[in-house]
Amino acid sequence: MAYKQRLTFGLIVGTRNIFNAKVAQASRSVAIKKLEQLGYGYVIVSEQDTNLGCIETYQDAQKCAKLFSAKRDEIDGIIVVLPNFGDEGSIVNSINMAKLNVPIMVQACDDDNDKVDVHSRRDAFCGKISVCNNFYQYGLPFTDTTFHTQPLESETFDKDVHRFAAVCRVANGLRKARIGAIGARPANFQTVRASEKILQASGITVVPVDMSEIIFAAQKLAGSAEVAKKVEEIKAYGEIPGRIKEDKIVRQAQFSVAVENWIAANDIDASTLQCWDSLEKNYGCAACVTMSMMGEKLLPSACEVDIAGAVSMYTLMLAGGTPSALLDWNNNFAQDRNKCVCTHCGNYPKSFMQTTPEISTLDVLGTQLGHEDTFGAVKGMVAPGAFSFFRISTDDTAGCVKAYVGEGQLTSDAYGMDGGIAVAQVNNLQQLLKFICKNGFEHHVAMNRGTLADIIEEATVNYLGWEVYRHE
Fold this sequence. Notes:
Layout: E1 8-13, H1 21-38, E2 41-43, H2 58-70, E3 77-82, H3 88-98, E4 104-108, H4 124-138, E5 143-144, H5 155-175, E6 178-182, H6 196-200, E7 205-209, H7 211-220, H8 225-237, H9 246-265, E8 270-273, H10 278-282, H11 288-296, E9 301-302, H12 307-320, E10 324-333, E11 336-344, H13 350-353, E12 358-361, H14 364-369, E13 375-381, E14 385-395, E15 400-410, E16 420-425, H15 429-438, E17 444-448, H16 453-463, E18 467-470
Parallel strand pairs: 1-2, 1-3, 3-4, 4-5, 6-7, 6-8, 8-9, 13-16, 15-18
Antiparallel strand pairs: 10-11, 10-17, 11-16, 12-13, 14-15, 14-17, 15-16
Helix pairs in contact: 2-3, 3-4, 5-12, 5-16, 7-9, 8-9, 9-11
Protein backbone atom coordinates (compact mmCIF):
# COMPACT_ATOMS: atom_id res chain seq x y z
CA MET A 1 0.00 0.00 0.00
CA ALA A 2 1.39 3.40 -1.00
CA TYR A 3 0.04 5.10 2.14
CA LYS A 4 2.64 4.66 4.87
CA GLN A 5 0.97 4.39 8.26
CA ARG A 6 3.93 4.83 10.62
CA LEU A 7 6.53 7.41 9.72
CA THR A 8 10.02 7.75 11.16
CA PHE A 9 11.66 11.12 11.71
CA GLY A 10 15.30 12.05 11.98
CA LEU A 11 15.38 14.08 15.22
CA ILE A 12 17.93 16.84 15.76
CA VAL A 13 18.05 18.62 19.12
CA GLY A 14 20.28 21.66 18.82
CA THR A 15 22.03 23.45 21.65
CA ARG A 16 24.77 26.02 22.32
CA ASN A 17 27.24 25.70 25.15
CA ILE A 18 26.62 29.16 26.64
CA PHE A 19 23.13 27.99 27.65
CA ASN A 20 22.12 25.62 30.45
CA ALA A 21 22.72 22.09 29.16
CA LYS A 22 20.04 20.64 31.44
CA VAL A 23 17.37 22.60 29.57
CA ALA A 24 18.46 21.00 26.28
CA GLN A 25 18.68 17.55 27.85
CA ALA A 26 15.15 17.85 29.25
CA SER A 27 13.76 18.99 25.90
CA ARG A 28 15.42 16.06 24.16
CA SER A 29 13.66 13.64 26.50
CA VAL A 30 10.32 15.40 26.01
CA ALA A 31 10.68 15.36 22.20
CA ILE A 32 11.42 11.63 22.15
CA LYS A 33 8.51 10.85 24.47
CA LYS A 34 6.21 13.05 22.42
CA LEU A 35 7.01 11.25 19.15
CA GLU A 36 6.45 7.89 20.84
CA GLN A 37 3.08 9.06 22.18
CA LEU A 38 2.03 10.31 18.74
CA GLY A 39 2.93 6.97 17.14
CA TYR A 40 6.04 7.94 15.19
CA GLY A 41 9.48 6.40 15.07
CA TYR A 42 12.66 8.42 15.40
CA VAL A 43 16.38 8.29 14.69
CA ILE A 44 18.64 10.40 16.93
CA VAL A 45 22.30 10.44 17.95
CA SER A 46 22.85 8.80 21.31
CA GLU A 47 24.01 10.49 24.47
CA GLN A 48 27.24 8.50 24.09
CA ASP A 49 27.91 9.84 20.58
CA THR A 50 27.53 13.55 21.38
CA ASN A 51 27.23 15.61 24.55
CA LEU A 52 23.76 14.78 25.94
CA GLY A 53 22.71 13.46 22.50
CA CYS A 54 22.41 17.03 21.18
CA ILE A 55 24.06 18.75 18.21
CA GLU A 56 26.33 21.78 18.76
CA THR A 57 29.64 21.20 16.93
CA TYR A 58 30.81 20.29 13.45
CA GLN A 59 31.97 16.93 14.81
CA ASP A 60 28.46 16.35 16.15
CA ALA A 61 27.08 17.20 12.72
CA GLN A 62 29.35 14.63 11.09
CA LYS A 63 28.11 11.92 13.46
CA CYS A 64 24.49 12.90 12.93
CA ALA A 65 24.86 12.98 9.13
CA LYS A 66 26.53 9.55 9.14
CA LEU A 67 23.71 8.10 11.25
CA PHE A 68 20.99 9.67 9.07
CA SER A 69 22.69 8.47 5.89
CA ALA A 70 22.84 4.92 7.24
CA LYS A 71 19.11 5.12 8.05
CA ARG A 72 18.04 6.92 4.87
CA ASP A 73 15.61 4.16 3.89
CA GLU A 74 13.80 4.60 7.23
CA ILE A 75 13.73 8.38 7.63
CA ASP A 76 10.68 10.13 6.14
CA GLY A 77 11.38 13.63 7.44
CA ILE A 78 13.59 15.59 9.81
CA ILE A 79 12.40 17.48 12.89
CA VAL A 80 14.71 20.10 14.34
CA VAL A 81 14.04 20.99 17.98
CA LEU A 82 15.60 24.14 19.45
CA PRO A 83 15.51 24.10 23.27
CA ASN A 84 17.72 27.21 23.18
CA PHE A 85 19.42 29.41 20.58
CA GLY A 86 21.21 26.39 19.13
CA ASP A 87 24.20 26.25 16.83
CA GLU A 88 22.92 26.95 13.35
CA GLY A 89 26.07 25.76 11.60
CA SER A 90 26.04 22.29 13.14
CA ILE A 91 22.32 21.90 12.50
CA VAL A 92 22.47 22.82 8.82
CA ASN A 93 25.59 20.71 8.30
CA SER A 94 23.91 17.67 9.85
CA ILE A 95 21.16 17.88 7.26
CA ASN A 96 23.21 19.07 4.30
CA MET A 97 25.83 16.32 4.68
CA ALA A 98 23.22 13.58 5.11
CA LYS A 99 21.55 14.56 1.79
CA LEU A 100 18.30 12.73 2.48
CA ASN A 101 16.09 15.06 0.40
CA VAL A 102 13.17 14.76 2.82
CA PRO A 103 11.00 17.50 4.35
CA ILE A 104 12.28 19.37 7.41
CA MET A 105 10.29 20.93 10.26
CA VAL A 106 11.79 23.50 12.64
CA GLN A 107 10.44 23.89 16.20
CA ALA A 108 11.66 26.32 18.84
CA CYS A 109 10.72 26.34 22.54
CA ASP A 110 9.08 29.23 24.38
CA ASP A 111 10.85 31.23 27.04
CA ASP A 112 8.81 31.68 30.21
CA ASN A 113 8.73 35.28 31.40
CA ASP A 114 9.75 34.24 34.92
CA LYS A 115 12.67 32.11 33.69
CA VAL A 116 14.92 34.40 31.70
CA ASP A 117 17.82 34.60 34.09
CA VAL A 118 21.25 33.55 32.90
CA HIS A 119 20.70 29.94 34.02
CA SER A 120 17.19 29.46 32.59
CA ARG A 121 16.82 31.56 29.43
CA ARG A 122 16.49 29.82 26.07
CA ASP A 123 16.64 32.50 23.32
CA ALA A 124 15.23 29.92 20.88
CA PHE A 125 13.01 32.67 19.47
CA CYS A 126 16.11 34.31 18.04
CA GLY A 127 17.96 31.09 17.30
CA LYS A 128 15.20 29.80 15.06
CA ILE A 129 15.59 32.80 12.79
CA SER A 130 19.31 32.01 12.46
CA VAL A 131 18.70 28.33 11.71
CA CYS A 132 16.09 29.16 9.08
CA ASN A 133 18.45 31.72 7.56
CA ASN A 134 21.04 28.98 7.10
CA PHE A 135 18.48 26.66 5.52
CA TYR A 136 17.67 29.43 3.07
CA GLN A 137 21.35 29.94 2.25
CA TYR A 138 21.83 26.20 1.63
CA GLY A 139 18.68 25.91 -0.46
CA LEU A 140 16.99 23.57 2.02
CA PRO A 141 13.20 24.01 2.04
CA PHE A 142 11.59 23.58 5.44
CA THR A 143 8.21 23.61 7.16
CA ASP A 144 7.45 26.04 9.96
CA THR A 145 5.29 25.39 13.02
CA THR A 146 2.02 27.16 13.78
CA PHE A 147 3.69 29.60 16.14
CA HIS A 148 7.28 30.83 15.92
CA THR A 149 7.92 29.29 19.35
CA GLN A 150 5.77 26.82 21.26
CA PRO A 151 6.07 24.24 24.04
CA LEU A 152 6.84 20.67 23.04
CA GLU A 153 4.13 19.58 25.46
CA SER A 154 1.41 21.57 23.65
CA GLU A 155 -1.49 20.31 21.53
CA THR A 156 -0.37 22.79 18.88
CA PHE A 157 2.92 20.95 18.53
CA ASP A 158 1.03 17.64 18.29
CA LYS A 159 -1.04 19.02 15.42
CA ASP A 160 2.07 20.40 13.73
CA VAL A 161 3.75 16.99 13.85
CA HIS A 162 0.69 15.26 12.37
CA ARG A 163 0.46 17.92 9.64
CA PHE A 164 4.17 17.54 8.93
CA ALA A 165 3.74 13.77 8.65
CA ALA A 166 1.07 14.31 5.98
CA VAL A 167 3.37 16.74 4.14
CA CYS A 168 6.10 14.08 4.21
CA ARG A 169 3.73 11.46 2.82
CA VAL A 170 2.76 13.73 -0.08
CA ALA A 171 6.23 15.02 -0.95
CA ASN A 172 8.00 11.67 -0.59
CA GLY A 173 5.18 9.75 -2.25
CA LEU A 174 5.05 11.95 -5.32
CA ARG A 175 8.83 11.93 -5.75
CA LYS A 176 8.73 8.18 -6.38
CA ALA A 177 5.19 7.66 -7.69
CA ARG A 178 4.47 5.13 -10.41
CA ILE A 179 1.33 5.87 -12.41
CA GLY A 180 -0.15 3.11 -14.54
CA ALA A 181 -1.66 4.20 -17.87
CA ILE A 182 -3.88 1.35 -19.05
CA GLY A 183 -4.89 1.78 -22.67
CA ALA A 184 -4.77 4.69 -25.08
CA ARG A 185 -6.27 8.09 -24.42
CA PRO A 186 -9.67 8.42 -26.14
CA ALA A 187 -9.17 10.51 -29.27
CA ASN A 188 -11.82 13.04 -28.32
CA PHE A 189 -10.20 13.75 -24.94
CA GLN A 190 -7.34 16.01 -25.94
CA THR A 191 -8.08 17.87 -22.73
CA VAL A 192 -6.32 15.16 -20.67
CA ARG A 193 -3.04 15.12 -22.60
CA ALA A 194 -0.06 15.28 -20.23
CA SER A 195 3.71 15.39 -20.44
CA GLU A 196 5.45 12.35 -19.00
CA LYS A 197 8.79 14.17 -19.11
CA ILE A 198 7.54 17.10 -17.02
CA LEU A 199 6.10 14.66 -14.48
CA GLN A 200 9.36 12.71 -14.44
CA ALA A 201 11.22 15.86 -13.43
CA SER A 202 9.29 15.66 -10.13
CA GLY A 203 10.02 11.93 -9.80
CA ILE A 204 6.68 10.69 -11.18
CA THR A 205 7.04 7.77 -13.60
CA VAL A 206 4.28 6.80 -16.04
CA VAL A 207 4.07 3.08 -16.82
CA PRO A 208 1.91 2.34 -19.89
CA VAL A 209 0.28 -0.90 -21.00
CA ASP A 210 -1.91 -1.63 -24.00
CA MET A 211 -5.54 -2.40 -23.17
CA SER A 212 -5.33 -5.52 -25.34
CA GLU A 213 -2.85 -7.04 -22.87
CA ILE A 214 -5.30 -6.53 -20.02
CA ILE A 215 -8.22 -7.91 -22.03
CA PHE A 216 -6.31 -11.05 -23.03
CA ALA A 217 -5.16 -11.51 -19.44
CA ALA A 218 -8.78 -11.18 -18.29
CA GLN A 219 -9.96 -13.80 -20.79
CA LYS A 220 -7.31 -16.28 -19.58
CA LEU A 221 -8.67 -15.97 -16.02
CA ALA A 222 -11.97 -17.62 -16.90
CA GLY A 223 -12.96 -20.19 -14.28
CA SER A 224 -10.21 -19.25 -11.82
CA ALA A 225 -10.57 -19.06 -8.05
CA GLU A 226 -9.42 -15.43 -8.20
CA VAL A 227 -12.37 -14.53 -10.37
CA ALA A 228 -14.86 -16.43 -8.21
CA LYS A 229 -13.63 -14.49 -5.19
CA LYS A 230 -13.87 -11.19 -7.06
CA VAL A 231 -17.45 -11.97 -8.12
CA GLU A 232 -18.41 -12.23 -4.45
CA GLU A 233 -16.56 -8.99 -3.67
CA ILE A 234 -18.47 -7.16 -6.38
CA LYS A 235 -21.79 -8.50 -5.17
CA ALA A 236 -20.97 -7.42 -1.61
CA TYR A 237 -19.81 -3.99 -2.78
CA GLY A 238 -23.23 -2.81 -3.96
CA GLU A 239 -26.74 -3.77 -4.95
CA ILE A 240 -26.94 -5.38 -8.40
CA PRO A 241 -30.38 -5.28 -10.11
CA GLY A 242 -31.90 -8.63 -10.97
CA ARG A 243 -31.83 -7.83 -14.68
CA ILE A 244 -28.04 -8.11 -14.70
CA LYS A 245 -26.99 -11.56 -15.84
CA GLU A 246 -24.41 -13.55 -13.91
CA ASP A 247 -22.06 -13.80 -16.87
CA LYS A 248 -21.78 -10.00 -16.96
CA ILE A 249 -20.67 -9.94 -13.33
CA VAL A 250 -18.14 -12.70 -14.05
CA ARG A 251 -16.80 -10.80 -17.06
CA GLN A 252 -16.41 -7.69 -14.91
CA ALA A 253 -14.63 -9.72 -12.23
CA GLN A 254 -12.16 -11.12 -14.76
CA PHE A 255 -11.30 -7.60 -15.90
CA SER A 256 -10.88 -6.38 -12.30
CA VAL A 257 -8.53 -9.22 -11.42
CA ALA A 258 -6.47 -8.67 -14.57
CA VAL A 259 -6.07 -4.96 -13.79
CA GLU A 260 -5.21 -5.57 -10.14
CA ASN A 261 -2.67 -8.26 -11.07
CA TRP A 262 -0.94 -5.90 -13.49
CA ILE A 263 -0.88 -3.11 -10.91
CA ALA A 264 0.66 -5.41 -8.30
CA ALA A 265 3.23 -6.82 -10.73
CA ASN A 266 4.37 -3.33 -11.77
CA ASP A 267 4.36 -1.70 -8.32
CA ILE A 268 1.79 0.90 -9.41
CA ASP A 269 0.64 3.56 -6.92
CA ALA A 270 -2.25 4.99 -8.95
CA SER A 271 -3.68 4.26 -12.36
CA THR A 272 -5.81 5.60 -15.15
CA LEU A 273 -7.85 3.51 -17.59
CA GLN A 274 -9.16 3.79 -21.12
CA CYS A 275 -12.65 3.38 -19.72
CA TRP A 276 -14.42 3.84 -23.07
CA ASP A 277 -15.16 2.82 -25.66
CA SER A 278 -12.68 0.09 -26.62
CA LEU A 279 -13.32 -1.86 -23.43
CA GLU A 280 -17.07 -2.00 -23.95
CA LYS A 281 -16.86 -2.80 -27.67
CA ASN A 282 -14.03 -5.34 -27.53
CA TYR A 283 -14.58 -6.97 -24.15
CA GLY A 284 -18.09 -6.17 -22.97
CA CYS A 285 -18.01 -4.36 -19.63
CA ALA A 286 -17.41 -0.94 -18.10
CA ALA A 287 -14.41 -0.07 -15.92
CA CYS A 288 -16.18 1.95 -13.22
CA VAL A 289 -16.54 -0.63 -10.44
CA THR A 290 -12.96 -1.78 -11.02
CA MET A 291 -11.76 1.79 -10.44
CA SER A 292 -14.15 2.35 -7.54
CA MET A 293 -13.04 -0.77 -5.66
CA MET A 294 -9.35 -0.01 -6.20
CA GLY A 295 -9.89 3.53 -4.93
CA GLU A 296 -11.51 2.13 -1.81
CA LYS A 297 -8.29 0.15 -1.24
CA LEU A 298 -6.23 3.39 -1.55
CA LEU A 299 -5.15 2.59 -5.12
CA PRO A 300 -6.64 5.62 -6.92
CA SER A 301 -7.77 5.12 -10.49
CA ALA A 302 -8.78 7.84 -12.96
CA CYS A 303 -11.00 7.81 -16.04
CA GLU A 304 -10.12 8.32 -19.69
CA VAL A 305 -6.34 7.88 -19.36
CA ASP A 306 -6.16 11.13 -17.41
CA ILE A 307 -2.60 10.73 -16.12
CA ALA A 308 -2.49 14.11 -14.38
CA GLY A 309 -5.88 13.31 -12.87
CA ALA A 310 -4.48 10.10 -11.39
CA VAL A 311 -1.58 12.07 -9.89
CA SER A 312 -4.10 14.53 -8.42
CA MET A 313 -6.08 11.69 -6.85
CA TYR A 314 -2.92 10.10 -5.47
CA THR A 315 -1.82 13.39 -3.93
CA LEU A 316 -5.09 13.78 -2.06
CA MET A 317 -4.95 10.17 -0.88
CA LEU A 318 -1.43 10.64 0.47
CA ALA A 319 -2.50 13.80 2.29
CA GLY A 320 -5.58 12.33 3.92
CA GLY A 321 -5.09 8.58 3.95
CA THR A 322 -8.61 8.08 2.60
CA PRO A 323 -10.03 7.25 -0.87
CA SER A 324 -10.04 9.86 -3.63
CA ALA A 325 -12.37 10.26 -6.61
CA LEU A 326 -12.10 11.88 -10.05
CA LEU A 327 -15.08 13.90 -11.25
CA ASP A 328 -16.20 16.33 -13.88
CA TRP A 329 -17.01 19.90 -12.93
CA ASN A 330 -20.23 19.04 -14.71
CA ASN A 331 -23.37 21.15 -14.18
CA ASN A 332 -24.59 24.38 -12.66
CA PHE A 333 -27.00 24.00 -9.75
CA ALA A 334 -29.97 26.16 -10.75
CA GLN A 335 -29.09 29.84 -10.09
CA ASP A 336 -26.86 29.22 -7.06
CA ARG A 337 -23.48 30.44 -8.35
CA ASN A 338 -21.52 28.91 -5.47
CA LYS A 339 -22.89 25.42 -6.10
CA CYS A 340 -22.30 22.98 -8.94
CA VAL A 341 -22.77 19.30 -9.72
CA CYS A 342 -19.74 17.03 -9.88
CA THR A 343 -20.32 13.68 -11.50
CA HIS A 344 -18.92 10.76 -13.45
CA CYS A 345 -20.60 7.71 -14.90
CA GLY A 346 -20.04 5.83 -11.68
CA ASN A 347 -16.52 5.38 -10.32
CA TYR A 348 -16.83 7.01 -6.87
CA PRO A 349 -15.27 4.87 -4.14
CA LYS A 350 -18.07 3.46 -2.02
CA SER A 351 -17.08 5.44 1.07
CA PHE A 352 -17.95 8.70 -0.69
CA MET A 353 -21.61 7.68 -0.66
CA GLN A 354 -21.67 6.23 2.86
CA THR A 355 -24.60 4.07 1.72
CA THR A 356 -24.75 0.94 -0.42
CA PRO A 357 -24.55 2.00 -4.08
CA GLU A 358 -26.23 0.39 -7.07
CA ILE A 359 -23.95 -1.40 -9.52
CA SER A 360 -25.53 -1.57 -12.95
CA THR A 361 -25.00 -0.33 -16.50
CA LEU A 362 -23.77 2.99 -17.87
CA ASP A 363 -26.55 5.43 -18.59
CA VAL A 364 -25.47 8.01 -21.19
CA LEU A 365 -22.76 5.83 -22.74
CA GLY A 366 -25.08 2.84 -22.57
CA THR A 367 -27.40 4.49 -25.07
CA GLN A 368 -24.54 4.45 -27.60
CA LEU A 369 -22.60 1.33 -26.65
CA GLY A 370 -25.50 -0.87 -25.56
CA HIS A 371 -26.48 -1.57 -21.98
CA GLU A 372 -25.62 -5.26 -22.36
CA ASP A 373 -21.92 -4.35 -22.72
CA THR A 374 -21.66 -1.62 -20.07
CA PHE A 375 -22.18 -3.32 -16.72
CA GLY A 376 -20.03 -1.90 -13.92
CA ALA A 377 -21.27 1.63 -13.14
CA VAL A 378 -21.39 2.53 -9.43
CA LYS A 379 -24.41 4.77 -8.87
CA GLY A 380 -25.60 6.87 -5.97
CA MET A 381 -25.63 10.27 -4.29
CA VAL A 382 -22.52 11.31 -2.43
CA ALA A 383 -23.11 11.94 1.28
CA PRO A 384 -22.77 15.51 2.60
CA GLY A 385 -19.65 16.73 4.36
CA ALA A 386 -16.39 18.61 3.92
CA PHE A 387 -14.21 17.88 0.91
CA SER A 388 -10.98 19.04 -0.69
CA PHE A 389 -10.37 19.39 -4.42
CA PHE A 390 -7.06 19.33 -6.29
CA ARG A 391 -5.97 19.31 -9.90
CA ILE A 392 -2.56 19.32 -11.53
CA SER A 393 -1.77 19.96 -15.17
CA THR A 394 1.49 19.74 -17.08
CA ASP A 395 2.04 23.00 -18.91
CA ASP A 396 4.27 22.09 -21.85
CA THR A 397 4.66 25.70 -22.99
CA ALA A 398 5.86 26.89 -19.58
CA GLY A 399 7.63 23.60 -18.86
CA CYS A 400 6.14 23.14 -15.39
CA VAL A 401 3.52 21.45 -13.27
CA LYS A 402 0.75 23.84 -12.30
CA ALA A 403 -2.20 23.14 -10.02
CA TYR A 404 -5.05 24.51 -7.97
CA VAL A 405 -6.34 23.37 -4.59
CA GLY A 406 -9.21 24.29 -2.31
CA GLU A 407 -11.96 23.10 -0.02
CA GLY A 408 -15.73 23.10 0.08
CA GLN A 409 -18.82 21.25 1.23
CA LEU A 410 -20.69 18.37 -0.37
CA THR A 411 -24.37 19.12 0.23
CA SER A 412 -27.50 17.03 0.75
CA ASP A 413 -29.31 18.66 -2.19
CA ALA A 414 -31.17 16.25 -4.44
CA TYR A 415 -30.33 16.19 -8.13
CA GLY A 416 -32.18 14.17 -10.75
CA MET A 417 -29.29 12.72 -12.73
CA ASP A 418 -28.04 9.16 -13.01
CA GLY A 419 -24.56 7.93 -12.11
CA GLY A 420 -22.36 9.06 -9.24
CA ILE A 421 -23.62 12.50 -8.22
CA ALA A 422 -22.27 15.12 -5.82
CA VAL A 423 -23.65 18.61 -5.29
CA ALA A 424 -20.67 20.73 -4.25
CA GLN A 425 -20.62 24.14 -2.63
CA VAL A 426 -17.44 26.20 -3.00
CA ASN A 427 -16.99 29.80 -1.89
CA ASN A 428 -16.31 32.13 -4.82
CA LEU A 429 -16.94 29.27 -7.24
CA GLN A 430 -17.26 31.60 -10.22
CA GLN A 431 -13.76 32.96 -9.56
CA LEU A 432 -12.41 29.41 -9.45
CA LEU A 433 -14.11 28.49 -12.72
CA LYS A 434 -12.67 31.57 -14.41
CA PHE A 435 -9.21 30.57 -13.18
CA ILE A 436 -9.68 27.03 -14.52
CA CYS A 437 -10.79 28.27 -17.94
CA LYS A 438 -8.23 31.07 -18.28
CA ASN A 439 -5.31 28.83 -17.32
CA GLY A 440 -6.14 25.85 -19.49
CA PHE A 441 -7.03 23.32 -16.81
CA GLU A 442 -8.94 20.14 -17.56
CA HIS A 443 -12.62 19.57 -16.78
CA HIS A 444 -11.67 16.71 -14.43
CA VAL A 445 -10.98 17.38 -10.75
CA ALA A 446 -9.86 15.08 -7.94
CA MET A 447 -11.71 15.08 -4.62
CA ASN A 448 -11.22 13.67 -1.14
CA ARG A 449 -13.44 13.80 1.92
CA GLY A 450 -11.38 15.96 4.26
CA THR A 451 -9.75 19.39 4.69
CA LEU A 452 -6.37 18.94 3.04
CA ALA A 453 -5.62 22.10 1.07
CA ASP A 454 -3.02 23.40 3.52
CA ILE A 455 -1.09 20.12 3.51
CA ILE A 456 -1.11 19.85 -0.28
CA GLU A 457 -0.07 23.45 -0.81
CA GLU A 458 2.85 23.06 1.62
CA ALA A 459 4.07 19.79 0.10
CA THR A 460 3.73 20.66 -3.58
CA VAL A 461 4.89 24.28 -3.50
CA ASN A 462 7.60 24.10 -0.85
CA TYR A 463 9.11 20.71 -1.62
CA LEU A 464 8.25 20.04 -5.29
CA GLY A 465 8.33 23.59 -6.61
CA TRP A 466 4.96 23.37 -8.36
CA GLU A 467 2.93 26.46 -9.18
CA VAL A 468 -0.23 26.10 -7.08
CA TYR A 469 -3.22 28.44 -6.82
CA ARG A 470 -4.89 28.19 -3.41
CA HIS A 471 -8.58 28.99 -3.82
CA GLU A 472 -10.26 30.68 -0.87
